[in-house]
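Here is one chain, start to finish.
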Amino acid sequence: MVSLKERNFWTMVLVVIVGILIGSYLSALIGLIPGQNNVAKTFFTYNFISFGVGFPHPLYLDLSAFKFQIGFQMKFNLFSVIGLFVSLYFFRWFK
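Its structure:
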């Protein structure tokens, strides 16, 4: 059985990931606004942190019959950070 503290921790991790994803999708929606890249659009859609395993070139394993591509990448922009803080704020009230 999972203890209450562990359940709260994993719930918090899930809420934080969802908040980051929602912020990232909002940033992608702003990037779809037609028009040229102005300062405001660039400010909200610029990825200021990018890192990962196999970044920028993923790891390949070619076994002739099977091919594997291994990699993981994370990108943070302003809306993903805002989504992180908003999700933590709502998690504070979630019990």
